[in-house]
């Protein structure tokens, strides 16, 4: 596995954990859609707030809406914020 792929996997795992906790869905996967899982603007803010705590950087809530699965959001976070 390349370093970039490993980083994306770790970020996706982090996001799955955050999505599970915020949405209250223990079976949520990397490909679960935020909207289909019952996400709304309040939960989107909770997700970005928790992500910001880990990254130490402001993450726009619009990213959750534009990239609604943990896998897709992880790719953007890694690209824009260089999560390691």
Automatic annotation (TrEMBL):
Presence of the UniProt keyword Cytoplasm in the record: no
SMART domains reported for this sequence: PKS_PP (SM00823)
Domain spans labelled Carrier: 6-81
GO molecular function annotations of the record: phosphopantetheine binding
Phosphoprotein found in the keyword field: yes
Span of the signal peptide: none
Gene Ontology CC entries for this record: cytoplasm
GO biological process: amino acid activation for nonribosomal peptide biosynthetic process; antibiotic biosynthetic process; secondary metabolite biosynthetic process
InterPro entries: ACP-like_sf (IPR036736), PKS_PP-bd (IPR020806), PP-bd_ACP (IPR009081)
Highest taxon, organism lineage: Bacteria
Protein name: Acyl carrier protein
Keywords on record: Phosphopantetheine, Phosphoprotein
């Amino acid at each position: 596995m390349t370093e970039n792929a490993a980083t994306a996997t770790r970020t996706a795992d982090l996001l799955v954990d955050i999505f599970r906790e915020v949405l209250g869905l223990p079976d949520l996967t990397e490909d679960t859609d935020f909207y289909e899982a019952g996400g709304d603007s309040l939960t989107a803010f909770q997700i970005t707030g928790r992500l910001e705590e880990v990254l130490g950087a402001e993450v726009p809530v619009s990213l959750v809406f534009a990239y609604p699965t943990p896998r897709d959001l992880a790719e953007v976070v890694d690209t824009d914020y260089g999560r390691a």
